[in-house]
Structures are given as C-alpha cells and as structure tokens.
Amino acid sequence: MMMDFYELTMANGYFQDHDKDVQVAFDVFYRANPDEGGFAIFAGLEQVIEYVENMVFSADDVEYFRQQNMFSEQFLQYLATFHFSGDIYAMPEGTIMYPNEPCITVVAPLIDAQLVETAILAQVNHQSLIATKARRIVRAANGRAVSDFGARRAHNIDAATYGARAAYIGGVVGTATVSAGQLFNIPISGTMAHSWVMFYGDEFLAFRKYAETYPDATVLLVDTYDVLKSGVPNAIRVFEEMREEGVKLTHYGIRIDSGDLAYLSKEAYKMLAAAGFDDATISASSDLDEYLIDSLKTQDA
Fold it and tell me: Which residues contact 48 (CB under 8 A, 6 or more apart)?
C-alpha cells in the first residue's frame, strides 16, 4: 500500500484496455551525484526484493480502493489475487554507480512494474543517499573507525533502522541503533549520555560507576561540564584506580561531544599520555561530516 495513488489509476486503465500482460522494462537511475560528489553507492536492494516477494493486497486494502469509487469490480478482484510475477535485475549492494546508469531494471507485466515503482524508488533513493554520505565520511576519516549514531536525527523509526543498514554498506564499522544491529547483524556500540553524568551529580562518581559496570569497555563522556578541567582529570582518576586494582585496560578511553574538537582532543591526549594512558582511545562525536573531519585532519587532530 506504500505507493502513489496514480500507480493504481494507471494500473486500472491498463486493466480496462487489456494491456496488463504486456511485458515492459522499467529502469531505476538517478540524475546527479549528491553533494556534488564523483559517484554514489547503491543500497536498498534487499528491501526491494522482500517487498516484491511479499506484495499482496488484503481484503481491507481492496475495500479501501472500492470506497474511492474509481475502480471496476473486475480490477478490484484482480488486485485481491495479485502477486508480483516479474524479474529484478540489479547491481550488488555497495556497488559504485554514476548518474543516468540503471542500478535496477524491472522486467515484468505492465501492471506489476507500475505498482512496485514507488516502493522501489523510496528504498533505493533513501538507502543509496545514506550509503553515499557514509562513504564520503569514511573516506575523509582515512582509516579511523566511523560509527553510525544517526537514529535520533532520522526522519522516523524505519529511516533510522534502514539508514544504519545503508551506512554500514557505506563503510561504517558499527551502529548505535539496536534495531539495525538485530535485523542486519551490524555490530552495535554505545557508552553513556550526559544524563548519566548528571544523574549521579558528581562526575567522578558517575565515571567510577560506569567503570565498575563495564570494566572491559570503559569509554567515558568527558564534556558534560568542562573537558579539560573536569572531564579528562576525572577520567584519568578512574583509569588510575582501575590500574591499581589490577584491571586490564583493553578497550578504554574518552569521548568528546562538543566544543573545539581539534583543540580539546590534542590537549586531552597530552593529559592522558602524561598519566601513562597514551593508548586510550579518544572518540569524537557531534554532527561530524566529511568536511569537519577534513578540518580536524588539517589540524592534526
């Protein structure tokens, strides 16, 4: 049912003219690369296949069409038993593609090809856009790991889930979106929010509580109050306690989510290294895109 209404009006017209079984070929392509880039990344095929394989109209769907007073009863009965019977030819997901180049070709009876148009375009356009943007960011990161954290900015729940899938196709190493991890076997990761630090009132106590809960994955968010005067010193105190207690520091570090990321990350590294924690990870978040990442690289951050 996720289709433009004119797919139905055209399908009904084809049905009335006895053209429904004419074989046609519909190509999916795009006209310009996003962000004036040199290429795009194809994504969304798995959901397209799931859609066409499971496309049926329920009795409620057919009744809804009947209430529009636009379709013949013969056409409605045809929809009641409809199943897609065409073929889908496509690039593998993750393939580089260029403008005006077909990435999917639907070869099918005329009505079948018409009815699936909207859903195919919606899946491919959204996921390919996200995969392309992710690839641009990953290329800018130049070997540094990039993780998807886009669910809270997505347009809805489906966009968040399938956007995370597309970002993974584009090259990110994991996602914070649990639904995408479960559905698509994408590695999931996450640490803490500012609300964790604020709940405990004392930043050092909040960090200690987190370290006690996750000693093998202690990544501390250090910008709730003041990164260099409070966050990093309190993180170092926690790491020192862990080291004194014999905890093996394997996956540990800090995350900075605001401010001058280049300056703060370099100063934080100096403080960590001076305390003997030069192997701690320093993760950055907060609206990172390829342009900001390039800027950070030019500042040796």
Answer: 88, 90, 104, 119, 120, 123, 124
